[in-house]
Amino acid sequence: MSTLEIKNLHIEIEGKEILKGVNLTLNSGEIHAIMGPNGTGKSTLAAAIMGNPAYEITQGQISLDGQDVLAMEVDERARAGLFLAVQYPSEIPGITNATFMRAAINARRDEDHQMGIPEFIQKLDQKMALLDMPESMATRYLNEGFSGGEKKRNEILQCLMIEPAFAILDEIDSGLDIDALKMVAKGVNAMRGSEFSSLIITHYQRLLNYIQPDIVHIMMDGKIVMTGGPELAQRLEAEGYKEISKELGFDLDSLHA
């Protein structure tokens, strides 16, 4: 079993503390969801796990199977099995989707086990069919001219192709219509299994109607303040953040003032 463990993580950006002691453990085979109001640190956590240099880690640890993740460069984290689907994927002219994904796959393999072109094309065709993506997407430049929905679906395609051990999906549902949302969920559900774990960051319970998490966390004021099963997301949808914040002694208005 693989384990991604976060202990007492504190993070600042431009001198402002965003995360104030996050503790979280993900084991392989588990799907976790983190929910919370804007500005509570959800995306900061995702960026820190993958090594965004804009975020200063002032205290705490992140480990992957006992290895110090914070001591790794970004590419080393990816090779170790971490993957981040970002909110706003970058457009990269001149590099096709297919070229990028094959390079990413082979970067995680030794020289004797590189994925050849026939094997890659067969796998790519299979995964694109699963996501109902046209074949032309493979030869388009990475995210260039893609709609918001196409970019999000493309992030899931990359995840399906690369097969990371831990996938962090940062608001993968934002801006999606119901059909695109269902397709993204179909891709995530296809990856579920004993060798895969995902941390899904979302504002809305609707995504979790299609990807049922094993564990749901609520984050407020830079900390995980409540943890439960799928029913916690349903309660949040029914009551809203304000009611739960009152129960926990938080004043949302003052937190975002």
What does this structure look like?
Residues 4-246 form the ABC transporter domain. This is FeS assembly ATPase SufC. It holds the Pfam family ABC_tran. Keywords: ATP-binding, Nucleotide-binding. The protein is α/β, with parallel strands linked by helices and 257 residues long. 36% of the residues lie in helices and 28% in strands. It has one domain (3-255): P-loop containing nucleotide triphosphate hydrolases (Rossmann fold, 3-Layer(aba) Sandwich). The strands form 3 sheets. The chain has a 6-stranded mixed beta sheet, sandwiched between helices. It is globular. 35% of the residues are buried.
Summarize the structure.
InterPro entries: AAA+_ATPase (IPR003593), ABC_transporter-like_ATP-bd (IPR003439), ABC_transporter-like_CS (IPR017871), FeS-cluster_ATPase_SufC (IPR010230), P-loop_NTPase (IPR027417). The protein has helices spanning 42-50, 74-79, 97-107, 117-130, 148-162, 178-191, 230-248, 252-255, and strands spanning 3-13, 16-27, 31-35, 56-64, 67-68, 82-85, 92-96, 141-142, 166-170, 197-201, 215-220, 223-228. The chain has 257 residues and is of the alpha/beta class.
